[in-house]
Amino acid sequence: MVCKKFMQVDVFSHQNFKGNPVAVFFDADDMSSYQMQTIARWTNLSETTFVLKPTSASADYRVRIFCPTKELDFAGHPTLGTCHALIESRLISSEKNEIIQECKKGLVKIAVTKPNHVKDWELSFELPGFSIENIDSSLHEGIETSLGITANEREKDPKLLKVGPNWVVLQLKDGDIIKNLDLDPLKLVKLSTEHKWSGLQLFSRSRDGTLEARTFAPASGISEDPACGSGAAAVGAYLSSFGEINLTLNLRQGRNVGRDALLKLRTESDGTDMNIYVGGHCNKCIEGEYHL
């Protein structure tokens, strides 16, 4: 029996068990894709990652990311959680300003910062590219029905953001609407499957500018994601399509499922290129071995 290192990291929270957990399996070069998917289905977390030796000379490590039903090209909270696990294990130094992750999407830059009020470090990733597509108006009613809302409760039209996952992003008018959704999961699965959407990323804006977010991806085996990094990045891209650029925003997420995550979103544009960054705090919650 082979015994190797395992860690479970809580992402986007200063308090253990209030963010979004990711299971990180170290030294996974000898694992098959079938084994990885089997383990990810068994952990039943929104994502599980497997650390491998990089194939790019520019990368510090390589990672494969799985949700319970399939492998993902990129995902936000697993990117930060895996990097945190490697720093915690002293396989990467926290003194580095930038760490490079290799994944199916390509190379992802991760910044390491040490805010004055934080005893250790915070991490943020730079979104490795995105595209925006309008969603045909004939689909708007189906999206609204799947959420149990009316057109009048939308602040803006939905758009499809391809950020690795393909998120349908929609801004709602206020926090009460987003808190009290009457979701129809079967309808959402049908829509997502037919149109190859990963799921829906919803948000509303409070008076102080903080965003309240919820993420649903039942077609990928995730009924509601407690805190979604790629979804937060998609929100930044979505807002840029309406002319909102050079933003610094906080997103709260997970309160409907007993969590209290904080995601930090920043967008920068010089009028030609748009860069999107999402970060937050991570905590090691579980450490041990896995056996194959």
UniProtKB/TrEMBL annotation:
**What are the catalytic residues?**
E47
Alphabetical list of Pfam families matching this protein: PhzC-PhzF (PF02567)
Gene Ontology cellular component annotations, sorted alphabetically: cytoplasm
An example Gene Ontology molecular-function term: isomerase activity
Q: Which domain of life is it from?
A: Eukaryota
Q: What is this protein called?
A: Piso0_001207 protein
The organism encoding this protein is Pichia sorbitophila (strain ATCC MYA-4447 / BCRC 22081 / CBS 7064 / NBRC 10061 / NRRL Y-12695)
* Upper taxonomic lineage: Eukaryota, Fungi, Dikarya, Ascomycota, Saccharomycotina
